[in-house]
């Protein structure tokens, strides 16, 4: 069974920090809640784990497996659900036979979180008063392949918005090549480096199927 919270539970952010970079999308969303207006009244934080969440990570060993989700049906057409499962830490590799029981635990946690999403959906049929942008469904962002596969394997329904998948790339800033110098990246003829502009953002938005605002 998953816990449904109206605030970020103490100890959850440090726990997610221990699982970077895979946990980054959910972690960043939870960090944004610290700012004014960063968490709507309709938003919920959902947590399923094989051990209670400890406010002090250093005092107790962290959970072996857990799933965290940030849900907000009041976000209109923007992403409504961000989700992370420790199943993603396997880096897409096949889990050995001796770890199949751990896989099952992680997958059941994912499904417990989805059941909590359904519960919130029943409690907020109108998305907090403004109507639901996706009635009977939920727009999920940055969904990892391992988590998606677990949902489908357990009977969940996941439909892509387009006929292709979006890929998520994580890289270290210090490893990005310099724009000048011997280690600079080679650009195609006629291309130059320059700062991103609002017009560039408009072009990117126009070329995707995801509704976004500049």
TrEMBL record:
Molecular functions (GO terms): transferase activity
Protein name stated in the entry: Putative acetyltransferase
This protein's record includes keyword Transferase: yes
Keywords, comma-separated and alphabetical: Transferase
Domain of life: Eukaryota
């Amino acid at each position: 069974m998953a816990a449904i919270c109206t605030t970020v539970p103490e100890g959850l952010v440090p726990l997610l920090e221990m699982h970077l970079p895979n946990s980054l999308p959910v972690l960043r969303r939870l960090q944004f809640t610290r700012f004014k207006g960063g968490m709507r009244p309709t938003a919920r934080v959902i947590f399923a784990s094989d051990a209670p969440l400890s406010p002090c990570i250093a005092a107790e060993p962290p959970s072996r497996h857990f799933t965290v989700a940030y849900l907000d049906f009041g976000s209109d057409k923007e992403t409504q659900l961000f989700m992370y499962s420790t199943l993603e830490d396997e880096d897409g590799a096949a889990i050995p036979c001796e770890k199949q029981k751990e896989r099952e635990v992680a997958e059941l946690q994912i499904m417990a979180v989805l059941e909590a999403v359904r519960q919130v959906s029943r409690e907020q049929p109108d998305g907090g008063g403004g109507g639901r942008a996706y009635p009977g469904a939920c727009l999920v962002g940055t969904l990892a392949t391992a988590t998606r596969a677990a949902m489908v394997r357990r009977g969940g329904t996941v439909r892509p918005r387009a006929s292709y998948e979006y890929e998520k790339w994580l890289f270290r800033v210090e490893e990005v090549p310099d724009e000048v110098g011997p280690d600079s990246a080679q650009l195609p003829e006629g291309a130059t480096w320059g700062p991103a502009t609002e017009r560039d953002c408009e072009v990117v938005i126009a070329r995707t199927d995801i509704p976004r605002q500049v």
